[in-house]
Amino acid sequence: MRWLAWPLPPPEPGLLAGAQGWWALRFTPRAALLEEALVLEVSSTARLWGGMAALRAQLRQAAPDHEHSQHWAEATTAWQALALLRLQRAGQPPPSRLPHDLPIDTLSALRPHAQALAHLGCRTWGALRALPRGALARRFGLPCLQALDAAWGETQAGWQWLALPEHFALEVELPALAEAAPALLWTGQRLLDALQGWLHARQQGVLELELAWHHDLRRVDGVALPAWQALRLRTAEPLQDTAHLRRLLAERLELQRLAAPVDRLALRSLQTAPLAPASHSLLAPAQGEGAAAGAEPWHQLVERLSARLGAASVQLPVAGDDHRPERMQRWQPALAPSPSCAGRAGQGSGAAHAARATLWPPWLLRPPRALPQQGDRPCLRGQALRLLAGPERVECGWWEGAAEQGDGQGLVRRDYFVAHNDAAGWVWIYRDRASGGWFLHGVYA
Asked: What global pTM score does this model have?
């Protein structure tokens, strides 16, 4: 077995126990808190990350940034790794033989007896194990020997592995009362770091979160105050980047006025979604001096503009769950929740939908254009059209009442065809079954 020990950052008042170690759960499910360290058993997952060397490099990159974040140790048991970590932080070199030459005071269970053991000539783990066990148990107690056996790897410990809550919700106390909204960001960053560890471990991205603050006062100038005040933040796509979330919160907090001094801060996730693995762009990276430095991902630009200009000022097209071609797409605020795919007029199975979509044109006419007829055949640009594919029948919108021709509102009953003539080329037309007329609805490239 291979155990890694990483120092924990200083504890935050009110922070949920174990939240400081959530960042490690993306690398192994076997992570636990051991005194002042986070210990990880990685023998079963190292190969998934490309071997121990690659795993160590990724752990160093993902570890929280604090004073001792670059100290870490590796050994065959968690207690040996913790002992090596303590030697590192004390500025002492590792012993040549493990675990025999580890000092007595590097094992917490032996520290109360370190001076007495030194009088007996026992200053290392190996020297202690060489003494008679019965006499040691009578003098120092059985727990000392049990701790030494576990540290040596001769007995198995019952670990309480870190587990993630189903939903992220953390609350911390501020080190001092905050009287302005931007002052909340310093403590808010600690909550964002915990959120990032939770998202990484669950392989999720946040779509909506809520930052709430607790008022220290109940009344101001005789006016009763709510205990909590909050703001909600939406992102255009699932996101794990806390630096970008901090920028968005800063934009919103700049416009926020606190009703009273704040003593506590809470952050919770309202909506998350699975995060798709990153893929490389088909386009070459930007070249030239300053080109890459000024680049900004599209979704971050949308979120920043929405925060500055208002959610209704930035809109994007979204797919609509409707068979009527003119209703398959609509505009909505870029940060609005995505509509459910289980509407009344569902598109049916994915395979059937894809098969029909191969004949749909890339451009639609709004509204559809009525076509003249020669007998019972539709004409365009003075020539009769030949019907080459179809019919594809659409009956939809009955729940909206009577139809108004061309706007897609209400019941429509149409038969769509792919048609062609030498003057107009390839077009998409339909016959309205209620009136019997023909209409041009789409054109092909």
From this structure: 0.54
